[in-house]
Design goal:
globular; 242 residues; single chain; 27% strand; alpha/beta; 9 strands; 9-stranded mixed sheet
Length: 242
């Protein structure tokens, strides 16, 4: 019997990409999508694991995005259950804030593709087993975990753009946050994201042809992004089995 994973989605256009759906199929995983901006995810305890996707919201925008208040309670409750959780981008921020970290403006806005480097601890972490370093990242953010990390968090990956590309809780390697949005990254994802959130693109890439460059990079990295997503999900699923 396959595993059932609850996926928290924060807006219509930042949905699980085709590479995540394909990875789930390969790894015998059923994804249940909860669109938290318009529906409750109250019955979460029946799932084997939680994946929290990225989104355009900031954690301090509860007045404009009321669902964030309820989602923060859900994330804390899930962490109290001590079940596996993988957070991307905003998902990482939700986990990190619950663990005592501070989230704030990024050193630089980053949109597009870059590379992450595993730390010494990251190379030993079960999520990254079999993954070569550096590895591809799909990024779309202007917020990040601020330095220094709380003592109860472990730095797993970094990059030239962001200090904390990946982290987990000390003694709880099954609760992991990634700054990237590696559940997406295809040409179709780039097209949707640039159409719905081009403000970040304009802010970090004030040049003509930026979108075409992203399309070209997405096409070039397509196989590598799919392989990375499938490997990460396979390793995450392995954490679900005691």
């Amino acid at each position: 019997m396959g595993h059932r994973i609850l996926v928290l989605q924060h807006c219509e256009w930042r949905q699980p990409g085709s590479i995540l759906h394909q990875a789930a199929q390969v790894n015998n995983v059923t994804l249940h999508i909860a669109r938290v901006w318009k529906e409750s995810a109250a019955d979460f305890a029946e799932f084997d694991a939680l994946i929290i996707l990225g989104g355009p919201d900031h954690l301090n925008q509860e007045s404009q995005r009321p669902f964030l208040r309820e989602e923060k309670r859900l994330v804390r409750a899930w962490m109290n259950l001590n079940k596996p959780c993988l957070g991307f981008n905003l998902g990482q921020h939700l986990l990190a804030e619950a663990a005592g970290a501070t989230i704030g403006p990024s050193r630089s806005i980053h949109v597009g593709f870059s590379e992450g480097l595993l730390t010494h601890e990251g190379k030993k972490h079960p999520l990254f087993q079999g993954l070569r370093s550096p590895f591809p990242l799909f990024k779309w953010h202007d917020q990040e975990i601020q330095s220094p990390l709380p003592r109860n968090m472990v730095l797993l990956a970094t990059s030239k753009d962001c200090m904390v590309e990946a982290c987990c809780l000390e003694g709880r390697p099954h609760i992991i946050g990634l700054q990237c949005d590696n559940y997406a990254g295809t040409r179709e994802d780039v097209d949707a994201w640039t159409k719905r959130d081009d403000a970040l693109l304009k802010a970090c890439a004030d040049r003509s042809g930026a979108t075409n460059e992203l399309f070209a990079t997405a096409d070039r990295l397509a196989a590598g992004m799919a392989t990375t997503c499938s490997l990460l999900l396979r390793n995450f699923v392995a954490l679900l089995t005691p």
